[in-house]
Amino acid sequence: MNAQSLANEVYLKVEEVAARYGVSIDTIYRWKRNGDFPKARKIGPGVTRWRLSDLIEHEANMQACFATHLNIPHNE
């Protein structure tokens, strides 16, 4: 990757990643520990970020699941 490509890359904080997926920060770190999520990048001392391009690639490879029936009890 050349310097221009690196300069154009977007890096997200864990709070931004959690908001993107509608989950908690703890969930992001759990996914990371379990190996179910793109690796974070150390971009400085004590600074960890996720590359947006890695997240987009991960999303493109995710499988979708659709519920065809919900068994919800009726309150009578």
TrEMBL record:
<feature type="domain" description="Helix-turn-helix">
    <location>
        <begin position="11"/>
        <end position="57"/>
    </location>
</feature>
<dbReference type="Pfam" id="PF12728">
    <property type="entry name" value="HTH_17"/>
</dbReference>
<dbReference type="InterPro" id="IPR041657">
    <property type="entry name" value="HTH_17"/>
</dbReference>
<dbReference type="InterPro" id="IPR009061">
    <property type="entry name" value="DNA-bd_dom_put_sf"/>
</dbReference>
<protein>
    <submittedName>
        <fullName>Prophage regulatory protein</fullName>
    </submittedName>
</protein>
